[in-house]
């Protein structure tokens, strides 16, 4: 971040009309910035969300779960270093939070949030293909730019509290979406079992 960004706030270009606007005031969708809701909506109509093709629902569920569980792990680290609670018990979350000072927490937050966004955005095409539109739209609506703009000089409990407040809703949507994908897989398995059940023998 340059001197002017520090002084006046970081600016970004609107994806649709290319107007320069303050990042903290911009509207975000699918990792892109827009100067207004109107620009975002017009761009969304002209650029429908990508849907995975060339596969089947089972493969989409499998790939979506793989990506979202990684996203869950990375966001879990962000929550953990900011003092929040997580529901993920996977191996990636294995850092010693007690030993991390404020600057370590700042660095871990920035790096793992970037990894989270990468995995979450990649999962969207599978979610849309499976009809989980509400989940996909929720995941692509979160804007973490204010976290990226936080200064290491301000690292500490207050900053960690702000981070926790901003990322918790995204973590909850990740968990909801993983539950939805698991539910779809179980429903498919149950239906398959019913279909494969042998018919009773006639006397």
Written overview of the protein:
The protein has seven helices and four strands, in the order H-E-E-E-E-H-H-H-H-H-H. The chain is mainly alpha-helical and 203 residues long. The protein has two domains: 1-45, no CATH class; 49-196. Helix content is 60%, strand content 6%. Strand 1 and strand 2 form a beta hairpin. 28% of the residues are buried. The chain is flat, with a radius of gyration of 21 Å. The strands form two sheets. The chain has a two-stranded antiparallel sheet with strand order 1-2. A two-stranded antiparallel ribbon has the order 3-4.
Spans of at least 5 consecutive residues whose pLDDT stays below 50 are 1-7, 87-100
> Which quaternary structure do these chains form?
single chain
Mean pLDDT across the residues is: 81
Query: What is the total number of structural domains?
Result: 2
Radius of gyration: 21 Å
**Topology order in helix (H) and strand (E) letters:** HEEEEHHHHHH
**Total count of helical runs of at least 4 residues:** 7
Largest sheet: 2 strands, antiparallel
